[in-house]
Write a structure and sequence with these properties.
Radius of gyration: 21 Å
Distance between the termini: 63 Å
Transmembrane segments: 38-57, 63-83, 104-124, 130-151, 158-177, 183-203, 232-249, 255-273, 294-312
Function: Converts heme B (protoheme IX) to heme O by substitution of the vinyl group on carbon 2 of heme B porphyrin ring with a hydroxyethyl farnesyl side group.
Strand content: under 5%
CATH topology of the largest domain: Tetracycline Repressor, domain 2
Number of helices: 14
Structural class: mainly alpha
Main location: membrane
Order of helices and strands: EEHHHHHHHHHHHHHH
CATH class of the largest domain: Mainly Alpha
Strand order of the largest sheet: 1-2
Keywords: Cell membrane, Heme biosynthesis, Membrane, Transferase, Transmembrane, Transmembrane helix
Family: Belongs to the UbiA prenyltransferase family. Protoheme IX farnesyltransferase subfamily.
Bound molecules: protoporphyrin IX containing FE, farnesyl diphosphate
Oligomer: single chain
């Protein structure tokens, strides 16, 4: 393998192929720092916020605004990975990330993240308005300082409060068009805010071993699976009425309302399977991961579908 390049990956030498392959795998690592899969839903919800806002902006500015949301989310993901590199190295799910695996230097990741964060906020301010730029800066700060640095390692309520970071994007999209934050933007924020605990706690039920090893006080680690299932159920019950708020305040029509009801029914079905998984009728524990895994996957599909319905209702029926 004369043209092969070897590099240290987490202490083991790994063949990486030609220099072209090396460039590609390096690029993949920098992209991985941006948490692109999580970013997809963040960007989509931001796009819907922008589409449902009254008035409109030039398509080039709209694309720029959405790009800024993507870059800001990615930047905060990179800073999160820089700060969390010690615990990411311990958790199986995250151990192969570029920093703990030794493929990107922590300092380089931090500089990359800070540069992108500043660039996204400045660009948002120039392309749209100060309100959108300020809310964008606030979401980055929330994810980095409030969630990652302050709450994540301190309290099992970390994701309830810190989850607000991920609820801002539709508000940013709305503000990019209108220049202000109104009740409609707050309603979209509230939907994601209430959705986040069932979304994350479903995952944490089957990833709690990881969090326990890393000493992160996620709810199942601190209060147990039963309490986590109870809280998942309570937030899910709350999510259904909150998801109907766009129709109640006249922001969306009955088509959205119907879609939200049906989707809410499915959401409750998946979360109920998690809740009832604790015990069978005889009170014997028959817990397994399958319902929580299915509920986590559905939570993502749910939010994509709900925001699609919000946009479709507006674009098709002009509600
Ligand atoms: C504090 C709040 C949140 C926490 C702690 C959290 C945590 C997580 C974790 C640990 C994963 C698994 C990722 C992996 O396998 O590496 C995940 C996946 C995901 N999250 Fe969240 N999340 C939060 C909020 C959000 C928000 C607000 C959104 C979007 C609106 C979102 C969208 C997604 C998506 C799309 C995935 C799937 C990624 C994949 O396919 O791997 N999350 N989340
Ligand atoms: C516009 C903007 C700045 C949005 C950013 C908000 C954002 C991406 C929120 C999502 C929150 C999230 C992915 C938390 C993951 O938790 P974690 O970091 O504990 O997950 P990990 O264990 O996978 O690192």
């Amino acid at each position: 393998m004369s043209d092969s390049t070897f590099r240290q990956t987490g202490g083991a030498s790994a063949p990486l192929g030609t220099s072209d392959d090396l460039d590609l795998s390096e690029a993949r690592d920098w992209i991985a720092l941006l948490k692109p899969r999580v970013m997809s839903l963040v960007v989509f919800s931001g796009l819907v916020g922008l589409l449902v806002a009254p008035g409109g902006i030039h398509p080039v500015l709209a694309v720029t605004a959405i790009l800024c949301v993507a870059v800001a989310a990615g930047a905060s993901g990179a800073i999160n990975m820089w700060y969390d590199r010690d615990i990411d190295a311990i958790m199986r799910r995250t151990a192969n990330r570029p920093i703990p695996a030794g493929r990107i230097r922590p300092q380089a990741a931090l500089s990359f993240g800070v540069f992108l964060a500043v660039a996204s906020v400045v660009m948002m301010g120039l392309a749209t308005n100060m309100v959108a730029a300020a809310v964008l800066a606030g979401s980055i700060a929330f994810y980095v300082f409030i969630y990652t640095m302050w709450l994540k390692r301190r309290t099992p309520q970390n994701i309830v409060i810190g989850g607000a970071a991920g609820a801002f994007p539709p508000m940013i999209g709305w503000a990019a068009v209108t220049g202000h934050v109104s009740i409609e933007a707050l309603v979209m924020f509230a939907i994601i805010f209430v959705w986040t605990p069932p979304h994350f706690w479903a995952l944490s039920l089957y990833a709690s071993g990881d969090y326990q090893r890393a000493g992160v006080p996620m709810l199942p680690v601190v209060s147990g699976a039963k309490e986590t299932r109870r809280q998942i159920w309570l937030y899910s019950l709350l999510l259904v009425p909150v998801s109907l708020a766009p129709t109640v305040i006249g922001m969306s029509g009955l088509a959205y309302g119907g879609a939200a009801l049906v989707l809410g029914g499915f959401f409750l079905h998946y979360m109920w399977r998690v809740k009832r998984d604790e015990q069978d009728e005889a009170g014997v524990s028959r817990s397994n991961d399958a319902p929580a895994r299915a509920a986590f996957r559905f939570s993502i599909l749910y939010l994509f579908a709900l925001f699609t319905a919000l946009a479709a209702d507006k674009l098709v029926f002009g509600a």
